[in-house]
């Protein structure tokens, strides 16, 4: 499979179909990390296996603008797993990425694994092995039994009495340091000025206190309603180990319940929970 | 060599916790979450320097804390003053009360060394910051040597050592049955009067296991690399989050803002606060008019490296990085400061 | 600890304000405590202060006058952000906070005997007004004074009611220009660099002092270079977002220089390598 990916990447770069291929590589101390390959010779660095958990789609919005005024937006190839592809679909629906500026290398997903070789919890809830959107698919999708996400993790928290639930979240959010890594890693959090960081915000100050932190995380979750593809990037990067995807999964569960099983990024229609500006406003207003 | 038995050390700490605010490495958070996760933070409890009420709360076998000890000298948030209205309707600025004396126990040598940078900026460069000065004056540092350099540590490549006593008042080194005690400063001498110390002839300090040392770039290499495309390439994968700056023992950037808060009892408090800020944040340099002189991610990333290895040494004559390795461990996309330093150090100058 | 707390503002009162240009007003503040007034009234042209609306926030501004023209402190403030909006909304008599004087200043003592060219763009003219005031108050100490004043449009020109006084001063010339033609405007039209090339002040025994947006400083520097000025004959004052003004908060750095502590006044030679990244 990796040979297919490398051959394709080499061809795309040699023919200048794309300026850059975003994939995965192993860093000097053995950690898997995003790789940006600009030269055909660089494709040898590329790897793909069950350690490649980063959602690379998050890098596309920043590449979706000319580097200098008047220049064209460069075309980028990106490796996407099924969950990543859903977040990419959200960005396409919201005009954040131009379809003709991204070359989608879909990868058949083996399911991601933890450092100790056990499957990532989120991957045990998912039977999607082929991305819904791609230009080329690499790899043979493994046969996996069908599973349904029961949101049992969310239900466990929902079942707690209010007091305990509050105590749980206050305890978790207390550790937040407002580093915004969750937001920065999230492909569908792309506002140029975050509501939690406006200089003139009446809602949230700069202090490292629970109300500010709770505000940020709850507002972020609401902004992700119907848009979060549950790729787990937020939780994976949190330096404090806060179970952030639980918040987003709670919203995803409610959205699915209210809207006939709606899941983010499974169709080319924007989520019904978001009001879209149309025409020229669309880009101007969002940026 | 002075020595204290484990039991005596615990007894001393228990007593100390009654007299001063005792801050020590302690495990925080639930036994969580996703064992085996690729996120090191999700694998178990994490250790922070926190106020403890007795010695049983101290995590003795920690590697390094998630956040460095700087949070106790430059808190993540502090009130500079409250803005109140006096009896005749006049405006009164009310400054925060002093804290009681503190002992930070178990500070690692690298964290203590990090205070050199904060001291240079906040204390020695006039005018001194009174809030920092007060905390620094009020605090005694009891260091705990690292028995080895941990994963990602590189203190020896930037001039430090896992058992360096230079920046603490007292340094403890764990040995069979207790700790060897080196008293470094007069402040340490005073604190040690409460310790049940023994003099042990021929007690030798264990040699910590070291990580490989590497070359760091020369001044010329830094100067020659400022406009290099290298920063764009490293910046490609940077997420522009603030983890590296918030876990760093020598970062000191802050933001100041006025805010009005209403307490649960309905009291309205107007205050000026300052809180940590980060040069990695896109808004960091934005002028009120909207102009952003550091709008590109690679400019911000580059600033962090130049701040540590060029600006701080040039401006304050002190090394800007202590090699604690926190940013290496915590970076979600593996931007490894050691790799960057070695890449630059390998460059040939034209 | 309040005695020498540099983060704590002096309390003052807003004693006067008048419009200068669209969205730009002059604000006059008198410190409440006579002792503070005494300590404070040593500021020099080029230095800056932090102006607080207590409960809203504080922001840095260059002094717009010299203490001899005091005793009130004058600052020209453009309404652009949340603090400046609050300042513009203050009623006369309001209590405000002032921290300073901060930063370095124009080395006007060293420039005695020289010709001076002052180039101000838009609100950038505000920190240059004390330079002009100082030279006019010590007229015999300096040679020829050339003032080149620019704005995008006539309604953005600051201190228009003082141009007659400046023009009338001995051995002084003044040129005003706007970027694009506007109905009713009979003066110069063109960028400040164009008018500078036309006026073409001699570089001999001359120092040019520039303040304006970074892009203007950059291009004025290039034009001055063409006219024979070396970078050691060009002074500029920069603005940056800052939160302390005393070299602590870290954010105003330009390379290893801090705008608040090593500036805001710089020789072009100190900052030219960084100006491009500042644009």
Description:
- The complex is a heterotrimer of chains A (287), B (350) and C (279).
- Chain A has 287 residues and is α/β, with parallel strands linked by helices.
- Chain A has helices at 2-14, 60-63, 82-93, 121-124, 152-158, 162-174, 181-185, 210-223, 233-237, 244-258, 281-286; strands at residues 20-26, 32-37, 76-80, 102-107, 136-138.
- In chain A, 34% of the residues lie in helices and 9% in strands.
- In chain A, strands 2-1-3-4-5 form a 5-stranded mixed sheet.
- In chain A, helix 4 links the parallel strand 4 and strand 5.
- In chain A, helix 8 (210-223) crosses helix 10.
- Chain A is globular and about 60 Å long.
- Chain B has one domain (2-345).
- Chain B has an 8-stranded mixed sheet. A 4-stranded antiparallel sheet of chain B has the order 5-4-12-11, with no helix packed on it.
- Chain C has 279 residues and is an alpha/beta fold.
- Chain C is built from 7 helices and 15 strands.
- A 7-stranded mixed sheet of chain C has the order 10-9-8-7-11-12-15, sandwiched between helices.
- In chain C, helix 5 (192-199) runs parallel beside helix 6 and helix 6 crosses helix 7.
Keywords, separated by commas or semicolons:
heterotrimer, A: 287 residues, 5-stranded mixed beta sheet, 5 strands, 9% strand, globular, C: Elongation Factor Tu (Ef-tu), domain 3, 2 domains, 7-stranded mixed beta sheet, 6-stranded antiparallel beta sheet, 22% helix
């Amino acid at each position: 499979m990796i040979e297919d990916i490398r051959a394709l990447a080499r061809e795309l770069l040699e023919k200048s179909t794309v300026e850059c291929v975003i994939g995965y590589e192993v860093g000097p101390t053995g950690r898997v990390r995003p790789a940006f390959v600009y030269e055909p010779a660089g494709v040898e660095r590329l790897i793909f296996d069950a350690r490649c958990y980063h959602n690379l789609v998050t890098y596309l919005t920043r590449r979706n603008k000319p580097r200098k005024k008047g220049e064209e937006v460069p075309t980028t190839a990106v490796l996407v797993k099924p969950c990543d592809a859903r977040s990419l679909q959200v960005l396409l629906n919201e005009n954040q990425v131009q379809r003709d500026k991204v070359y989608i290398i879909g990868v058949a997903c083996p399911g991601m694994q933890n450092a100790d070789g056990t499957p990532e919890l989120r991957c045990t809830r998912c039977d999607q092995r082929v991305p819904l959107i791609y230009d080329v698919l690499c790899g043979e999708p493994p046969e996996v039994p069908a599973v349904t996400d029961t949101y049992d993790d969310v239900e466990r928290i929902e079942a707690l009495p209010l007091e305990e639930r509050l105590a749980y979240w206050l305890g978790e959010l207390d550790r937040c340091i407002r580093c915004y890594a969750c937001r920065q890693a999230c492909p569908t959090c792309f506002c140029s000025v975050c509501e939690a960081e406006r200089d003139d915000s009446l809602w949230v100050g700069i202090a490292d206190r629970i109300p500010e932190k709770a505000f940020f995380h709850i507002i972020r979750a609401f902004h992700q309603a119907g848009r979060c593809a549950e790729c787990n990037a937020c939780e994976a990067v949190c330096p404090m180990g806060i179970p952030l995807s639980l918040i987003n999964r709670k919203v995803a569960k409610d959205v699915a319940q209210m809207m006939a099983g709606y899941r983010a990024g499974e169709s080319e229609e924007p989520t019904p929970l978001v009001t879209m500006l149309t025409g020229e406003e669309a880009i101007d207003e969002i940026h | 060599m002075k020595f204290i038995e484990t039991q005596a050390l615990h007894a001393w700490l228990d007593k100390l916790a009654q007299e001063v605010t005792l801050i020590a490495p302690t495990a925080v958070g639930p036994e969580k979450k996703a064992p085996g996760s690729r996120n090191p933070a999700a694998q178990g409890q994490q250790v922070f320097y926190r106020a403890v009420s007795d010695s049983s709360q101290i995590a003795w076998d920690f590697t390094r804390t998630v956040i460095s000890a700087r949070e106790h000298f430059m808190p993540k948030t502090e009130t500079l003053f409250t803005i109140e209205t006096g009896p005749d309707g006049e405006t009164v600025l009310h400054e925060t009360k002093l804290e009681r004396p503190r002992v930070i126990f178990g500070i690692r040598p690298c964290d203590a060394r990090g205070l050199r940078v904060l001291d240079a900026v906040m204390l020695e460069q006039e005018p001194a910051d009174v809030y920092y000065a007060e905390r620094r004056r009020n605090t005694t540092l009891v260091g705990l040597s690292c028995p080895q350099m941990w994963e990602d540590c590189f203190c020896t490549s930037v001039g430090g050592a896992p058992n360096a006593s230079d920046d603490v008042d007292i340094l403890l080194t764990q040995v069979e049955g207790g700790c060897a005690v080196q008293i470094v400063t007069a402040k340490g001498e005073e604190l040690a009067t409460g310790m049940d110390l023994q003099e042990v002839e021929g007690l030798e300090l264990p040699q910590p296991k070291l990580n490989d040392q590497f070359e760091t770039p020369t001044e010329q290499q830094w100067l020659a690399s400022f406009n290099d495309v290298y920063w764009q390439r490293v910046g490609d994968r940077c997420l522009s989050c603030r983890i590296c700056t918030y876990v760093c023992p020598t970062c000191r950037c802050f933001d100041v803002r006025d805010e009005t808060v209403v307490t649960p009892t309905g009291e309205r408090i107007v205050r000026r606060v300052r809180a940590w800020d980060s040069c990695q944040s896109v808004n960091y340099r934005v002028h009120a008019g909207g102009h952003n002189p550091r709008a590109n991610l690679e400019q911000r990333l580059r600033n962090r490296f130049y701040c540590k290895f060029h600006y701080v040494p040039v401006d304050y004559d002190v090394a800007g990085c202590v090699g604690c390795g926190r940013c290496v461990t915590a970076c979600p996309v593996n931007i490894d400061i050691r790799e960057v330093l070695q890449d630059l150090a390998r460059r040939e100058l034209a | 600890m309040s005695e020498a707390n540099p983060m704590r503002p002096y309390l003052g009162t807003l004693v006067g304000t008048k419009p200068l240009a669209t969205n730009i007003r002059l604000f006059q503040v008198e410190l409440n405590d006579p002792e503070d007034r005494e300590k404070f009234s040593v500021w020099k042209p080029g230095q800056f202060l932090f102006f607080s609306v207590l409960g809203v926030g504080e922001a840095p501004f260059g002094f717009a006058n010299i203490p001899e023209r005091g005793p009130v402190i004058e600052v020209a403030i453009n309404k652009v952000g949340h603090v400046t909006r609050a300042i513009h909304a203050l009623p006369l008599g309001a209590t405000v906070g002032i921290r300073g004087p901060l930063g370095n200043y124009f080395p006007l003592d060293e420039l005695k005997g020289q010709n001076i060219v002052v180039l101000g763009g838009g609100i950038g003219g505000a920190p240059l007004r004390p330079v002009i005031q100082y030279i006019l108050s010590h007229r015999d100490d300096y040679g020829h004074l050339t003032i080149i004043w620019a704005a995008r449009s006539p309604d953005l020109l600051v201190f228009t009611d003082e141009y007659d006084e400046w023009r009338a001063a001995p051995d002084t010339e003044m040129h005003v220009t706007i970027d694009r033609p506007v109905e009713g405007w009979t003066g110069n039209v063109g960028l400040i660099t164009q008018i500078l090339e036309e006026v073409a002040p001699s570089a001999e025994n001359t120092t040019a002092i520039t303040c304006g947006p970074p892009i203007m400083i950059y291009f004025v520097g290039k034009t001055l270079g063409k006219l024979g000025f070396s970078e050691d004959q060009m002074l500029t004052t920069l603005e940056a977002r800052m939160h302390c003004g005393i070299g602590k908060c870290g954010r105003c750095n330009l390379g290893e220089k801090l705008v608040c502590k090593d500036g805001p006044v710089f020789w072009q030679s100190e900052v030219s390598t960084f100006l491009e990244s500042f644009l």
